[in-house]
Amino acid sequence: MAHAPAPAPDKPLVVLTQRTIWLIFGALMASMFLSSLDQTIVSTAMPTIVGELDGVAHQGWVVTAYILAVAIGMPLYGKFGDLYGRRWPFLVAIGLFTLASAGAGMADSMLTLVLWRAVQGLGGGGLMILSQSIIADIVPASERGKYMGPLGALFGISAVLGPLLGGWLTEGPGWRWAFWINIPVGFAAFAIAWFALRLPSHRSSRPVDWAGIVSMAVATTGIVLITSWESLAQGGYDWTDGRLLGLVALTVGAVGAFVLAENRAAEPLIPLRLFKNRTFTITTLIGLVLGMGLFSAMAMLPTFLQMSTGAGVTESGWLMLPMMVGVMLTSIVSGFAVAKSGRYKAYPVAGLAVVAAGMVWLTTLSGDTSMWVFGAMIFTLGAGMGLVMQVVVLAVQNAVDPSELGTATSANNFFREVGASVGVALFTTIFTSRLTDNLGQVFAGVPGAAETGAEASLTPAMVAELPEPLHSGVIDAYADALAPSFWYLVPLVLVGFVLALFLPVIKLSDVAGMVARGEAIEDPARVAAREQAAADAAAEQEEAGDGAPSETVDAAVGREGGAPTDIVDR
């Protein structure tokens, strides 16, 4: 598929040999591992951290600050990478993450830790977005599945390794090493990226969209704060509270200001015209509902495991292993299958159907559900996730102009993060309110329970020591609060399934992003091999006496700034 090349750069063109691609891919894997491993290590060490820093009441902010910074940073890295090149933003992201790891490990108060976690989020968001964008720069969409599948599986590996490593560090050298372990890994990732990530940098005369950046940051912060209000205010969602009403008004105003700024900016942070692209709009909405549904489901499952089995934090992480196996398996298999066949629409459709089935199955969860059945439930959920997450990113990257790869990728991920934040907050509220009522009934007949607030201070160890029938009553209370809550998520996933049915199928490009922009040239040996393979296939088809094309072309649409792109019926 042809693209209009960008003007020839002043510097020598990068030759994308297979060796160069593997070197860059290695740098991306090292950096992604740095980012993804940190999240699971910290979650394991959290009880010890908040106890030592006297921050139990504010422990949610250690996670919230990171998620908020990731969400805000994503569009910035995507846009600046498109404007100035991705090498230096990527190195800055590694540097920020490593520096913040050192600072968080030396934190002597909860406020200091939260601030350093926010800086970590700014680095982590850049690592995630730029890794996906750089892959699109160096590998054609027709071959990208082979690389994006392992990147998705890397999250599964880190999710399994993180709890084990975090538990070992917390019980051994101390929780601060859960952060400090990132320092040598960060230095190694920085060194690999410095030498391997030879990507072009360039200047842009376009003005920075400061109005869009500020309004986006305020709006995103407001959305996260509103959805986290239950944990911020003692009275919960009291709509007579002037602070809550003021925050809602500020957030709505910031959203309006962002839309206005993006319509006026010469180089908008998130160009609203992208939403005229049907593939971008549908994949972004899929990411939004997927974030709301899946991340909500994953948020409370470890808590249920700890209460029902008496497992510690590390052990509960191991009990989530089937979900990670499902993610890894289908991410890799679907990635290679897409690269081989060039067809991708079936995977998000099937994946969302599988996720919906897994959600429905989880509504049958009870206190006496065996761990084998539970493992099968979450394996199903993970298998569905793996079929969707990387494929929708591939679809959106294939549907936009090569000059906007980073912007489109970051916008797609941005809305998924916002959806995850909103979904987790809402699901947690539903679960917590049901759980409070259930536990109140369990302890209603226990003398002095209401006065001491026993149900509010339960830990897995305490539950394991409760006599019958209180022990079974508490486990059933958690199951009865969690299982029906999944019914609220099923419609969200089904909305995503319906959206996936309308996903346009665009022929996968055989040109890497940097080649399309005139910043690199493809390895001549690879070009010759591909042309020979195409000639051989044409000859075989002619010998078979079938001169019809193998794919039915329904229509053609143009990428902005690029040549027409075939939409094919698959």
Oligomer status: single chain
- Major sheet size, sense and barrel closure: 2 strands, parallel
Strand order across the biggest sheet?
Answer: 1-2
Q: How many β-strand runs? A: 4
Average per-residue pLDDT, rounded, comes to: 80
Shape: globular
Instruction: Enumerate how many helices there are, as a single number.
Output: 22
**SSE string:** EHHHHHHHHHHHHHHHHHHHHHEHEE
**Class from secondary-structure proportions:** mainly alpha
Instruction: State the end-to-end distance.
Output: 18 Å
Sheet-strand content, in percent, reads under 5%
What percentage of residues falls in helices of 4 or more residues? over 70%
Question: What ranges have pLDDT less than 50 throughout 5 or more consecutive residues?
Answer: 1-9, 547-570
What is the alpha-carbon Rg in Å? 25 Å
